[in-house]
Amino acid sequence: MTIVTHSVAETEAAAARLAASFRGGEVVALHGELGAGKTQFTRGIVKGLGGDVHAVSSPTFVLLNVYDTGRLKVFHLDAYRVHGAEDFDAIGFAELLEQKGVVVIEWPSRVESLLPPRRIDVKLQTLSPQVRRISVDERTA
What we know:
Strand order of the largest sheet: 1-7-6-2-5-4-3
Helix content: 10-25%
Number of helices: 4
Number of strands: 7
CATH topology: Rossmann fold
CATH class: Alpha Beta
Structural class: alpha/beta
Strand content: 25-35%
Distance between the termini: 18 Å
Radius of gyration: 14 Å
């Protein structure tokens, strides 16, 4: 599935629609350059699960933020500053995958060896300051 959004609100709404079908155990890998809208997409996921979008911030310096939406926990990770998969191992990444929440990873290519084969790859491409092309690919194995 590919869509084009024309504002932050539309990007968040697209993510909220995707998250509405989540039941727990989903892994969402967010691909895109700096400023492509990865954190906004995460806000939309949190919103779609009934959580507080104002609590969502980029975990670039802390590696992990956890949001309790009331429906499912969202584990929001950022691999931008990690030095390798071992940094994610150190924060218990494998255990997060077993929590039956939603695991959202920004910059997933930096920890590719740890990603499960069953996941949702989301590619955000900047077309202009407000316009994004969002491609969603659900990998089943």
